[in-house]
Write a structure and sequence with these properties.
Layout (H helix, E strand, L loop, with lengths): L5 H29 L5 H28 L25 E2 L2 E2 H23 L5 H24 L3 H5 L7 H19 L15 H20 L7 H29 L4 H15 L8 H25 L8 H19 L15 H33 L6 H6 L1 H6 L7
Antiparallel strand pairs: 1-2
Helix pairs in contact: 1-2, 1-3, 1-7, 2-3, 2-4, 3-4, 3-6, 4-6, 4-12, 6-11, 6-12, 7-8, 7-9, 8-9, 8-10, 9-10, 9-11, 10-11, 11-12
């Protein structure tokens, strides 16, 4: 009988804990500090509730439909043979690790992806809508895309390279956040009224947890304690550093002063953009991707908010979405062996790989965008998406949850 590798198992248990740390409390603190004080608690409860809801849905059907073979309809979905974890035991293996460990690791990705979308509709949506939308979006958008790319689906067979979630997590979340911002509409007063973050130390604390947690996010995607995991962790750190410095320097030159918020946003842009490439590129490729990420995402954020006046409240689409797109495309470039990468497993050269990467992005964006729009329209007809003007002015903490984050 095959047995689990102890080192790989221990490493994956640690990576799983790190990825969960990214959502709780990392993302909760990061997003919670970015909103106004009257909405801080609403972000925290949304992150915690989505974690609980997504976890149980992953147990019920999500895991099997994303990662199990045998029931796939032309590479579109997996099977129901692991519904409610039927047949899974402590001795079940996926590669060299116990299946329960693999299940938990993938669960943390299923948790953080709908939680990222919160940034697109923060400060104006009904809590009941958050729960319904997150549950349905997980099953109808995240699960199919995860199967296409990570579960042996049709995009995997074409050779799409997405090591840790450039498409599955970041393009998905970025497109969904953009559609949410467009369908739900702007916050009252945007862009005329200042809506600055209420607690930057909280944002910095959350960003630090995201940075550390990302080592599990990308390193753990090797599914083993090996050199690929080590290089992915190194690439992750270098991408974050380069993204942060690029954003800070552009902002410094443009506005005369470097800001804490700018540096932290650059960190997240670098982390998100290196994600799809982290297991395929060398250190110099990671630095190049990070600098490109900080630059492109900075100007994408400026375009969205200052020119187009789209109220993606916490910049999910210009940071995660745009970062996921450019990171996925640059994977095809810097994975080339001539540039220090690992090479391509299916496609013969860089140009062919670039075409496959673009196809993966386009199909995912179209599926995610269409399904997100349909879900929001259906929920608007049944529940109503937005809180009332009075509740929005009062703040969601009191209006939706009857609590205050800070004493008056």
């Amino acid at each position: 009988m095959p047995v689990a590798n102890g080192a790989d198992t221990a490493f994956m248990i640690m990576a799983t804990a790190l990825v969960l740390l990214m959502t709780l409390p990392g993302l909760a603190l990061f997003y919670g500090g970015l909103v106004r004080s009257k909405n801080a608690l609403s972000i925290l409860i949304q992150c915690f509730a989505i974690t609980c809801l997504a976890s149980l849905l992953w147990v019920a059907v999500g895991y099997g439909l994303a990662f199990r073979d045998g029931g796939s309809w032309q590479g579109f979905l997996g099977s129901f043979d692991r519904s409610f974890l039927s047949g899974m035991t402590a001795t079940s293996l996926v590669g060299t690790i116990p299946e329960p460990v693999f299940f938990m690791f993938q669960l943390t990705f299923a948790v953080i992806t709908p939680a990222l979308v919160i940034g697109g509709y923060a400060e104006r949506i009904r809590f009941s809508v958050v729960l319904w939308f997150s549950a349905l979006w997980l099953l109808l958008v995240y699960v199919p895309v995860a199967h296409w790319i990570w579960g042996g689906g049709w995009l995997a067979k074409l050779g799409v390279m997405d090591f840790a979630g450039g498409i599955v997590v970041h393009v998905n979340a970025g497109v969904a956040a953009l559609v949410c911002a467009l369908v739900i509409g702007r916050r009252r007063g945007f862009p005329q009224v200042s809506m600055a973050p209420h607690n930057l130390p909280l944002v910095a604390t959350g960003a630090g947890m995201l940075w550390v947690g990302w080592f599990g996010f990308n390193g753990g995607s090797a599914l083993a304690a090996n050199g690929t995991a080590g290089m992915a962790i190194l690439a992750t750190h270098l991408g974050a550093c380069a993204g942060a410095l690029a954003w800070m320097l552009i902002e410094w030159r443009k506005y005369g002063k470097p800001s804490v918020l700018g540096l932290l946003t650059g960190v997240v842009a670098g982390l998100g953009t290196i994600t799809p490439a982290s297991g395929y590129v060398g250190p110099m490729g990671a630095i190049a991707i990070g600098f490109i990420a900080g630059t492109v995402c900075f100007f994408a954020t400026q375009l969205l908010k200052r020119v187009l006046h789209i109220d993606d409240s916490l910049d999910v689409s210009p940071v995660h979405g745009v970062g996921g797109v450019i990171g996925t495309l640059l994977t095809a470039v810097f994975a080339a062996t001539a540039l220090g990468g690992t090479g391509y497993s299916v496609q013969p050269d860089m140009l062919a790989q670039l075409g496959v990467q673009a196809l993966g992005i386009a199909v995912t964006a179209a599926w995610c965008g269409g399904m997100t729009w349909a879900l929001l329209k259906a929920l608007d007809l049944t529940l109503g998406l937005r809180v009332s003007e009075e509740d929005e002015a009062e703040g969601l903490d009191l209006a939706e949850h009857g609590e205050r984050g800070y004493s008056p």
